[in-house]
Design goal:
Layout: E1 40-44, H1 53-63, E2 67-71, H2 84-98, E3 101-105, H3 127-147, E4 152-154, H4 165-186, E5 190-192, H5 203-212, E6 219-224, H6 225-231, H7 236-243, E7 247-252, E8 254-256, E9 259-263, H8 272-281, E10 287-290, H9 299-313
Parallel strand pairs: 1-2, 1-10, 2-3, 4-5, 5-6, 6-7, 7-10
Antiparallel strand pairs: 8-9
Helix pairs in contact: 1-2, 1-9, 3-4, 7-8
């Protein structure tokens, strides 16, 4: 078993921070201009878990977001519901009416097992348990195809106790085979996320999987900018440039080195203008989705702060200006987080 060290899972919710200060392009060092593609920003529904899905989508549209990272979970779009196709059709109509793009995410904590966070995984020793995770991903691919999503996100899971890494990598590759077949048939990329503490934790790990599977065309990468800051050897902007050819989905938040804690913008150590400049220069056309799952207690507040921050940090030829229709003021978060999940 490998002795490599990864940061621990997220700690408990910190106390509510002061609002971040959006960066100024005037303060950023001068850089050579590279061809770029306008960035499209979204917000993850796992950071709006206290809202009904209709309300969450309306909020994001009113704030001016381009899309949504839709986590399949019981409180929003339940992937195990008997009437999933009908529910998906209603969501598709709602997204179209609001003009929102979508990525389908599969990081719900307890959607398959009420006792095991993110369990079962693609690495579990029990073949039936692995099959349950595969089934979830197959359902996610069908949902993504019906929604017109630009990608389906997934991750490996943590190394099970008593399992050596070679065995775990074989399980991961074997488990993803039918999912990639379904993704190919549906024309929806599968975007695997390197996750701190998981078997597939780094960009190097993603490339190991890609080579093992024979570099299938529909296998792409979910790059989480905070995770780059947390544990990658390269700075986040360099990670973006290195990952460019495989990018299919991007998640974004602030983070500190060596600490896997998703933070609101301005609370961590990331310098965002060079990161977003590098992302635009790759030509990436999917959504860049704010990932603050532990801030649902104040989700509308953070959604309201995050988009202006990102727009101020983006290259000048980035996203279109915000809508001119008036937006209702959003409430401030409570001083003590409620319902935080360790």
């Amino acid at each position: 078993m490998s002795t490599r060290s990864h940061p621990a899972h997220d700690p408990g919710e910190p106390s509510a921070p002061p609002p971040p200060h959006p960066p100024s392009h005037a303060q950023a060092p001068a850089r050579a201009q590279a061809p770029s593609h306008p960035l499209r920003f979204g917000y993850g529904t796992n950071g709006l878990a206290d809202l009904r899905l209709d309300d969450a989508l309306a909020l994001l549209a009113d704030l001016g977001y381009d899309g949504v990272g839709l986590t399949l979970d019981h409180m929003h779009l339940d992937p195990l519901a008997s009437d999933l196709p009908a529910r998906t059709e209603r969501v598709a109509r709602r997204l179209a009416a609001l003009g929102l793009g979508v990525t389908v995410e599969t990081g719900a904590r307890y959607v398959l097992d009420p006792r095991r966070k993110h369990g079962p995984s693609l690495l579990d020793p029990d073949a039936d348990d692995r099959a349950r995770r595969v089934d979830l991903l197959l359902r996610a691919v069908r949902v993504a195809a019906d929604l017109g999503a630009h990608a389906v996100h997934c991750f490996s899971g943590i190394l099970p106790p008593g399992t050596d890494e070679d065995t775990a990598w074989k399980r991961l590759a074997d488990s993803l085979g039918p999912v990639l077949d379904a993704a190919d048939a549906a024309g929806v990329p599968l975007a695997v996320e390197p996750e701190p503490g998981h078997l597939l934790a780094t960009l190097d790990d993603f490339h190991r999987l890609r080579r093992t599977l024979g570099d299938p065309g529909l296998l792409g990468l979910t790059l989480d900018i905070g995770h780059c800051q947390c544990l990658e050897p390269l700075p986040p902007a360099d990670c973006v440039r290195a990952a460019g050819p495989w990018l299919r989905h991007v998640q974004i938040e602030d983070m500190r080195r060596g600490v896997h804690e998703h933070l609101p913008f301005g609370e961590g150590e990331i310098d965002f203008p060079p990161v977003l400049e590098a992302l635009a220069a790759t030509g990436y056309q999917g959504l860049t989705v704010v990932e603050l799952p532990r801030h649902s207690h104040a989700g509308p507040h953070h959604a309201g702060l995050s988009l202006p921050f990102l727009r101020a940090a983006a290259p000048p030829d980035g996203p279109v200006p915000p809508p001119t229709r008036p937006v209702s003021p959003l409430g401030e978060p409570s001083a003590t987080p409620e319902g935080s999940t360790p």
